[in-house]
Each structure stands twice: as structure tokens, then as C-alpha cells.
Amino acid sequence: MTNFLSEDFLLMNEYDRELYYTFAKNMPICDYHCHLSPQEIWENRPFENMTKAWLGGDHYKWRAMRLNGVREEFITGDAPDKEKFLAWAKTVPKTIGNPLYHWTHMELKTYFHFHQPLDETNGENVWDACNRLLQQEAFTPRALIERSNVRAIGTTDDPTDSLLYHQKLQADDTFHVKVIPTFRPDGALKIEQGSFADWVAKLSDVTGKSIDTLDAFLHALKERLTYFDKHGCRSSDHDMTEVPFVEVSEQEAHHIFRKRLANEDLTKVENEKYKTFLMTWLGKEYAARGWVMQWHIGVMRNNNSRMLHKLGPDTGFDSIGDGQIAHATAKLLDLLDKQGALPKTILYCVNPNANYILASMIGNFTESGVRGKVQFGSAWWFNDHIDGMRRQLTDLASVGLLSNFIGMLTDSRSFLSYPRHDYFRRILCQLIGSWIKEGQLPPDMERWGQIVQDICYNNVVDYFDMKETVRL
């Protein structure tokens, strides 16, 4: 019997272990997409307790607790933080087979040196022990980042953000991790939402420009793109329930924008035309600046309208969509490519049924001399577990080039999430090690070890052109 969460966790043979210990384990981390708060990194305040550090904003844990019958007052409600933690501790054993079980114990082991399974019998002792440690200097946000061997972090930022805390961090030579903004213009694209006019007004306030036409809107967006670029931005990110593509003229786009600003309802086709126009315009802007464009495809968000009204968005009521994406993805990428304006692009899909669609799609749009210009992004959200990661890796390898893959990200709001990179690295080494053991690959450990290191770190540094900005 193998011990729970041993040093050889997920490593099944001598090839897995050599790849992991010799090549993967000590590689730095570039967490190129996450939702960490730049303000929290800058302020660097100790966490009040484990609930604040570990449960706040974590809708993965919230969903599990709800599924286990925990009352909402112990999840997002006004119950004492200790009671919320104990409710989570009681839920943990019920998460077997879910990555939360592994992540929970990897995080406790990595940061708090706690090696036993967390449950209702020891939750109070773990609460007390971890809270004492959280008051030490080694557990501030910056210390946790540096202890995790992180070299760069890509946050997620609205175009109207002042980037104040990014500026402060960039001017602080005592913190050596690069914290880089990411341009996330969901407010500009989601013209169907009731908040669209409010977002346009906010953009107007930030730029000091009146916005009553599409030209004025694009001019203001371009100003913010330039502002983000000057503050080190290297990428954009887009939330797409469905990939938009309906052919549209510029005249039509102007009419649709005016109509929406006048608070008139749009048809579904008009929504799609506007989004197609704006995504094309944005893609050109990204390409001109050498940015990476990220698409997160397929999430059905805020499905429970009662809880949306009670708690707001992004509180754990999202699920996998089943919309068709192949045609629109190909057409939108092609529209940019034939104009010579397709930026480097990462395609993520929350529906694993689309794996082969995206893994094959990336081979359609290449550029001479550029390795892996369009990427099939890492197993995301409902897929970032052992089976999901293995499936994404094997599907990519089957129809593309795994060796060019840019690897793992946390997509997290927690400073304790970095063991997810170790989780991924063990799965990667187990996969390649199994191919060696089965005779599918020769035992050329230096060659495969180099590919492992590239996937863990080197490829993403090259892809985002960060060689000059991160310590290697």
C-alpha cells in the first residue's frame, strides 16, 4: 500500500520519479493567468485566519459545501469564521475523487507541514495551529508567493482599472516577482447585459472623453490599451459562453452600438455581430502590441437566478455549456489571420468534449518561425483534476505538439493555490514516464526531461516574451 500523499504521490515508476525529481520539481512558476488581487500583494497584510486565507472567494469549496448540505450562513453568510472552517473540515472527507481533496491536503502539507487527513475530528486543532502560523512573516501574501518559487503573475484587470497597485509593485525593488496586468474587456463586449451602458459611462469617466458613438468608444478603448501596455501588460483575456461570429459591416456595428446606448433591445444576431466586430478590432490591437489573446470558452454562468440576486455573480453557480464552437472559432481566427492581424492566442474550453476540436484547431493557424502560435490551454475549471489534465495532455499530444505546450496556471484567487502546479507536474511526469515504461518512448531521459522543463516553465516565458523581465 502506498502512503497517502507521500513524496512519490502520483509517481508510479522509476521514469516518473526521475522526470519529476530531476527535471520538474524545482522549476520556477509563471502563473500567467490568475485572479489574485494586486492590492493584497502590495499591502502584504497577514491573513486574519484560515477562513480569510483559504475559503474567501473560493467557489470551488463553496460548491462542495453546498452539495454536502452545509447551510449558506456557514459558506458566504455571517457565521463566525471558525464555524465556516469547521464546516469545510467536515466536508473535506466527502470530496474523495474531487481535486479539492488533493489540493486541500497538498496546501496543508506544503505551507503548514500538516500531514494528516483533515476532517471533523481534527478541524479545531488545525484551525488553531494554522492560525498561529499565519501571523508569521513567512505567511504574508508576498512571502507565500516567493516561497512557492513564483517568478511572474498575470492578474485579471478591467480596462477601467487605474492599475495603481501594479504601479506600486513595479516601483518596489524589494519584491522580485513580476505582477503583470491582463486586459479583460468583458464589460465592453457583453453588450446584451443591463450593465453595458454603466460600463461605457465608467470608461468615459476614466478617459475623460464623451462616448456617444462607436468611434468614440473605440478611441477610448485604444487609450486604455495603450495605458495597459505602458504598465507592462502582455495579454488580454475574454470570457465567452459561445464564440461569436456573424459577418458584419462597420456601418452595421455603428448602428447596433447607437441602438444599445439608446437602451433599445438587440436581437441575438445583432449581439453576435457587435461581438464579432469588436473581437476583430481588439485582435488587431493585441497583435500590433505583441500581446497574447486568451479565450475562455463555454461556461454557463450564474444559472441560479435566486442565488445570483442574493449573492451576486461568480459565487459558485456556473456550469459547463454544450454550445457548438468549431465553426465560429475557425471563422473568427481566420478573419484575423487573413488580415495579418492574428495575435498569439490561447484557447481554453471548459467542456472536455471540445478537446479534440481545439487541439486540432491550433494547427490551422501557424506562423513561420513561431512555435505554437495558437495554444490549446490547460485543463480548466471543471477539468483541472487528474483525469481532466491527463485527457488534455494526451488529446493535445495526439493531434498536436505537446512539447510546445505552455503548461499550468492556477486561475485562482488564493495565495495558497500554488501546489496546483506541483499537481500538474506530477501528472505530466507520470504520463510521459508511463509512455517510457510501456516502450512507447525510448528511455532518453535528458530529452524528455528537457521537454518537461519546457512545459513547466520555459515555453510560457518564451510565449509571453518575458525573458527580459523574469529571473531565470
Automatic annotation (TrEMBL):
UniProt pathway: Carbohydrate metabolism; pentose and glucuronate interconversion
Q: Does the keyword Transferase apply?
A: no
Query: Please, which domain of life does this record's source organism belong to?
Result: Bacteria
Q: Record's SUPFAM superfamilies?
A: Metallo-dependent hydrolases (SSF51556)
Q: Set out the biological process GO terms recorded for this chain's protein.
A: D-galacturonate catabolic process; D-glucuronate catabolic process
Q: Name one GO molecular function term.
A: glucuronate isomerase activity
- The answer, when asked if Isomerase is one of the entry's keywords, is yes
Cite the EC number: 5.3.1.12
Task: List the catalytic activities from the record.
Answer: D-glucuronate = D-fructuronate; aldehydo-D-galacturonate = keto-D-tagaturonate
* Keywords, in A-Z order: Isomerase
InterPro entries, alphabetized:
Metal_Hydrolase (IPR032466), Uronate_isomerase (IPR003766)
A Pfam family found in this protein is UxaC
The record's comment on protein family reads: Belongs to the metallo-dependent hydrolases superfamily. Uronate isomerase family.
Name of this protein: Uronate isomerase
Gene source species: Halalkalibacterium halodurans
User: What does the record give as the organism's lineage?
Assistant: Bacteria, Bacillati, Bacillota, Bacilli, Bacillales
